[in-house]
Design a protein that fits this description.
The chain is an alpha+beta fold. The protein is 16% helix and 45% strand. The chain has five helices and 24 strands. The radius of gyration is 43 Å and the shape is elongated. The relative contact order is 0.10.
Length: 321
Amino acid sequence: MPGIKKSSGRISSKKLSNLKVVVLCIAAATTFWILNALNKDNYTTIVDYPIAWDYDQDNYMAVQPLPETVPIQISGNGWDLLRKYFQLNEPPYIINLEEPSTRNYLLTADLKRPLGDFITPTNLIGTLEDSIIFHIDKIEQRKLNLVIDSTSFSLAKNIEIEGPIRFSPEQVTVKGPTSVLDIFQGKFPVSINENRISQNFQKSVPISIDKALSEFVTLEEESVEVNFSIIQFLEGNKRLKVKKNNFPRDVTLENEEITPMITYLVDGSKVTELKDIEFDAILDYRKRNREDSTITIEVRPNPSYIKEIKVDPLFVKLKYE
């Protein structure tokens, strides 16, 4: 039987050489076609052309990132359009703003002629947006009144602040764009970071701008002194003497032996004054609840230095003969 000749599966050097020639011819033809195409005029495309902003940055500040490009439709030589599309060595068009805080937009129609001159020899066909939005504010310096951040401290049980909270200095100076300063509404919060305060407070505390605003606002002062007095209230209780007002002869209480009790908080400095006061449980028949024949107990007197008065029982039941 004659032998069968097996193929090695390898491409001969002659065929490989011919394949390289074909590839080089295709690459050269493609390159020649691209170069020839790019040399032609009257191509049209859309590009995001770079822009830059020129304004007085000593007296004005951008409170939002300014646009960096403007979409435009252009026509011209292929090479020129390619450079502009990929922003290859293309200088940005500079937009000059004299008083940038007077408005927050710029009509692109106003840019068409100067921008068209700037990008020559490329032809500007038009812009894709009606306006360019920006937000630049005038920089101001303001005095803000100081207020305590109520979430930054706590008082001990039965402790209250007496009178106003005093600051030194009474105001702080901030500088920044107007719209950001408006956020403060004329007040600057001070955090004292203290818990369960139980005595008069006097301390110098650091102050700073919130991290979210520190990019825009500067603060002249670094600390303020906070000063306030406290009142300590003490718990107390007393039995009441019942006094009936406007009761008819045929109306009594279901429990004539009742002795109401009150609990209260009293300013610690007024305890001696409270000892000389007798409290009455006033029952006014004219103020009765006609539906269930009850009267709510009123406590008299009620001096300003006691608070959180609680009566037990809260009301009494009437009995008709």
